[in-house]
Amino acid sequence: MHEAPVQRSNALRAWLATAVMIALLPALLVPMLVVTATNPRLTASPARVAAGATVAVAGSGFPKNTTGTITLDGVPTGLDYRADVRGAFSVTLVVPAGAAAGIHTVAATMAAGHPSKTTSKSLAVIMASVPLTVVTATPTTTPIPTSSPTVIASVAATAIPTATTTPAPTTTVPAASAPATPTPASSTPLVSYQPSLPLRAAFYYPWFPEAWTQKGIYPFTHYHPSLNYYDSSSLTVERAHIAAMQYGNIQAGIASWWGQGSMSDGRVPALLSAAAGTTFRWAPYYEAESLGDPSATQITADLGYIRDRYAADPSYLRVHGRFVVFVYADGSDGCAMAQRWHDANTVGAYVVLKTFNGYRTCASQPDGWHQYAPAVAADSQSGYSYSISPGFFLATDPTPRLARDRTAWNASIRAMVGSGAPFQLVTTFNEWGEGTSVESATEWASGSGYGAYLDALHANGVTASAP
Predict the structure, then answer these.
(1) Residue 170 — very low, low, confident or very high, per pLDDT cuts 50/70/90?
(2) 104 pLDDT band (50/70/90 cuts)?
(3) CA 83 to CA 243: how far, in whole Å?
(4) Cβ 109 vs Cβ 126: under 8 Å
(5) Which residues on neighbouring strands pair with residue 60, listed in sequence order?
(6) DSSP 313
(7) Are 18 and 214 in contact (CB under 8 A)?
């Protein structure tokens, strides 16, 4: 007896649905493993070697019985790992003989899903990373801290450079043909390293998963982050973000900060801890100016809170020995705002205010100025900052206000590097609601695992990217 046509059609649809789910299963499971893994950690021993030497790379806290690949600066090394039933592994990495002197990033990645349609390569998720310093001569006896945050914490109170003690090494953003990754002097341990101007920084938002839901919309974005809809309080996520930013030659993150006791305030310690053992640094983005005009008294109290609670941490950004604070401004702000901050800054903060019309004519001037205009591809504030944005597509908008164009993005990067501006700013690393992120997403995933926009930053805009 033959099946009726409707029955055969239903059976076929059920079979196709099952096949699709099986095909998508790897891509769905890997991001879940990344977030639920028990704090994956990676170590490299020794942490400072010459080119051509071998390094023991060990992982712990990885998903049990999983496999992946070891990469160096985002490039697969051909070395695979397998985590055992305890989530641990150990492999031996041979540093390429031609590796340049400086700080490199060793990462453990896990393949996610099927090969990309544009690259024919499987996409990769960064599980954990660790810095590796390559030297050109016999290493000195100066101890280099490991990637363990607990080791760094023990010297946090005394290892911060000041304007009169250990000077920061001279580092400039190089020409577009060379990578911009900072290289500390061989005598400067990572714990005391601070980048010098000019430096590249990115605006960063530690407000997830809360911000995945806004205005009754979930997820509040047009895009699909490669790490899925993650939790900013996860050290695994934060370390992956730091590794991604360092891959893009981003030396510091400017983290949205809404005041003492706020949700974003509660995430600052973890951000600083996640950067321990690396050259990456953090500064807050003081957002209260967007809600009104905080009094000089309130600003002084907030600056004192930041200084006492966070600025002594080795992972906090300092310029000329002073702790850095970026400040947002609203459309109605003027010279009175600059005056309030001048009067309030009795604690020696290095203050970088957001621009407004006529800011150069104000009697009271801060240490620096910046623009935050994510719907504009590039903005130059001569002598102060140069900002670039990959696009702007608000979750509630039907079309982008600034369409993504990778050719234009490369051009913006080259112009930013060529400007020599003290602060070279990426708007943003992960503001997903406004669609300004350079963090990897399904829509622009790449073989490096970091995504096309960070690939372009890694190459300083020299390598052309297909639209």
Answers:
(1) very low
(2) confident
(3) 21
(4) yes
(5) 41
(6) S
(7) no
